[in-house]
Amino acid sequence: MARVYVIANQKGGVGKTSIAVNLSASLAHYGRRVLLVDLDPQGNATTGAGVDKSEIERSVYDVLLGECDVGASRRRVEGGFDVVGSNRDLAGAEVELIGMDKREYRLRTAIDAVRADYDFVVIDCPPALNMLTVNGFTAADAVIIPMQCEYYALEGLSDLVGTLRKVKQNLNPAIEIEALVRTMYDPRSTLTVQVSDELKRHYGDKVFDTVIPRNIRIAEAPSFGKPVLLHDPASKGAQSHLAFARELLERSGHAVA
Ligand code: ADP
Ligand code: MG
């Protein structure tokens, strides 16, 4: 049965989508069956995984509104994983969900139906703590939080932790923070090192050893519709994403061949 990860941070531009796409590709590289779900109306994970978002017939929007199931909306991409894509249609879902029954559980119900098909489900969230993100939290077993080691990062993190506490109390008692992953990491910056140390003091071993460096190959890969692993497998960017996936697998007791 799949373990479901939600990639969340209410800040934009911290590397959520990049982690979602590249973690999916890296887990697939290690032979795992992976489903990537794009929960952001911007559809960047969709494009980054190689799906043309203007051509999606059935998106995560249709899944959330109960108009189709995951099986009818997923498609296989070159990276060797499945994607349920998203596009602008999803921006309306927030309002449309308001009147719906069990609106916080719609993604969970849809994913539960395909849990047996996968080892991992990876959900990419919008940069907000809204009803879409709440659907992601409710559907997930664990949260992966990408963060840049900047001055305001810790403040943002305590808001996120507060929201997760409420989700745990009211909607999904099983949810846990599994990983804090430092992205766009620059070890030459004193501030990065200070914030990083602070992070470890507060969150201990939730902070993964693997860091994702700032790397041009990671930034340019989405314009080719490819995970960095297919764009330039030898790059530091691709190798760091593989290392992150390995750390995640090893910590959760999976052997990595
Ligand atoms: P979010 O989903 O949190 O908004 P993205 O993953 O879209 O963040 O990243 C924001 C921008 O930074 C994108 O242009 C992305 O390609 C780039 N980016 C993400 N991670 C890295 C990295 N490790 N090195 C360089 N650029 C990165
Ligand atoms: Mg994003």
Description:
It is a single chain. The chain is an alpha/beta fold. The protein has one domain (3-251): 3-Layer(aba) Sandwich (Rossmann fold). It is 42% helix and 13% strand. It contains twelve helices and seven strands. Strands 3-4-2-5-1-6-7 form a seven-stranded mixed β-sheet, with helices on both faces. Helix 6 (106-112) packs parallel to helix 7 (131-139). The longest helix has 18 residues, at 153-170. The two termini are 20 Å apart. The mean pLDDT is 96. It binds adenosine-5'-diphosphate (ADP) and magnesium ion.
Tag the structure with descriptive keywords:
binds adenosine-5'-diphosphate; binds magnesium ion; globular; seven-stranded mixed β-sheet; 42% helix; alpha/beta; 257 residues; Rossmann fold
How would you name the oligomeric state of the polypeptide chains in this document? Answer: single chain
Structural class category: alpha/beta
Number of strands: 7
Q: Into how many domains do the coordinates divide?
A: 1
Distinct bound molecules: adenosine-5'-diphosphate, magnesium ion
Instruction: Write down the CATH class.
Output: Alpha Beta
Rounded to the nearest angstrom, the radius of gyration is: 17 Å
Number of helices, counting only DSSP H or I runs of 4 residues or more: 12
Q: Tell me the β content.
A: 5-15%
CATH fold name = Rossmann fold
Mean pLDDT score, rounded? 96
The largest sheet has its strands arranged as 3-4-2-5-1-6-7
Kindly report how far apart the N and C termini lie.
20 Å
Q: What can be said about the biggest beta sheet? A: 7 strands, mixed
